[in-house]
Specification:
The protein has about 220 residues and is an alpha/beta fold. Helix content is about 30%, strand content about 20%. The chain has an 8-stranded mixed beta sheet with strand order 3-4-2-5-1-6-7-8, sandwiched between helices.
Length: about 220
C-alpha cells in the first residue's frame, strides 16, 4: 500500500483543498481516508451541528461508510468524493486509538496493493506515509497551531504554503522561516484552491504520480 498524507497546523489551512486538488489530478486512482480525532470535551470538533458524526462516537473509534453521511454537501468527505476519490472513508478516533483504527481499516476496507490519500495530523506516526505533505496558510494564527506542527514541517517531504487570499508580505516571511527550519528547502507557494495542473511547481504532482499503481484496481 502506498500512502500520501496531507497535514496542516490547524483548520482553515487548506488541507482538504489540497487533497481535492490531488484527487482531481488522479481521478479514481486514490482512495481517501479522513481522520478526525474526537475529544470528549468537544473543543476540537470540526463541526458544531448536533448531527455531527463525532457526537455519535461510541467506543474508541468508528469508521463511517454510509454514503449519505460521506457525500453530504459542504462537508470535507463530500468534497473528496466529488473531487475524484475511488472511495471515501471517515475515521473517528479518540486520542491514542489511531493504531487500532488503522489496523481495522487495513483488515476490512483497504487493499494492500492500492494507493490511498489521508487527511489528518495525529495519525501520521501510525501511518509512516510514503509522501507527507504539510499545508500552511498565513491566515491561520500561530496561537491556533497544533503542538505537532513544527515537527511535521521538519519531517514533511513537501511543504505547501497556501497563498489563497493571503498578502505577499506574510507569505515571503513565512517561506523564509520554513526554509530556515528545513535546512534551506523552501516551500511550494501555491493557491491550493486551484487544480493541480495549474500549480506553477509540479513537484507535488510528480511525487504523487510515482506512488500510483501501474495498473489501477477495479472499482469496489
Amino acid at each position: 500500500m502506498k500512502i500520501v498524507s496531507v497535514a496542516a497546523p490547524g483548520n482553515g489551512s487548506g488541507k482538504t483543498l489540497t487533497v481535492a486538488a490531488i484527487l482531481g489530478a488522479f481521478p479514481r486512482q486514490l482512495s481517501a481516508v479522513k481522520f478526525t480525532t474526537v475529544f470528549r470535551d468537544g473543543v476540537n470538533c470540526p463541526r458544531t451541528e448536533r448531527s455531527c458524526a463525532c457526537r455519535s462516537l461510541h467506543g474508541r473509534f468508528n469508521i463511517v461508510t454510509d454514503p449519505d453521511v460521506l457525500m453530504t454537501e459542504e462537508t470535507d468527505t463530500g468534497r473528496l468524493g466529488r473531487a475524484g476519490a475511488r472511495s471515501v472513508l471517515w475515521c473517528l478516533a479518540l486520542p491514542g486509538a489511531h493504531q487500532d483504527a488503522w489496523n481495522h481499516l487495513c483488515r476490512e476496507f483497504l487493499a494492500r496493493e492500492e494507493a490511498i490519500i489521508t487527511e489528518g495530523n495525529t495519525v501520521i506516526p501510525v501511518l509512516s506515509p510514503d509522501l507527507l505533505v504539510m499545508v500552511i496558510s498565513p491566515r491561520v494564527p500561530r496561537e491556533r497551531w497544533k503542538p505537532d506542527s513544527w515537527g511535521l514541517i521538519r519531517r514533511a517531504d513537501l511543504v505547501v504554503l497556501n497563498n489563497h487570499e493571503a498578502s505577499a508580505a506574510p507569505i515571503d516571511d513565512m517561506a523564509a522561516e520554513i526554509a530556515a527550519v528545513r535546512g534551506g528547502a523552501r516551500p511550494l507557494i501555491e493557491d491550493v484552491s486551484r487544480p493541480l495542473a495549474n500549480w506553477s511547481d509540479r513537484a507535488l504532482r510528480r511525487a504523487v504520480a510515482r506512488l500510483i499503481p501501474d495498473r489501477p484496481l477495479q472499482h469496489r
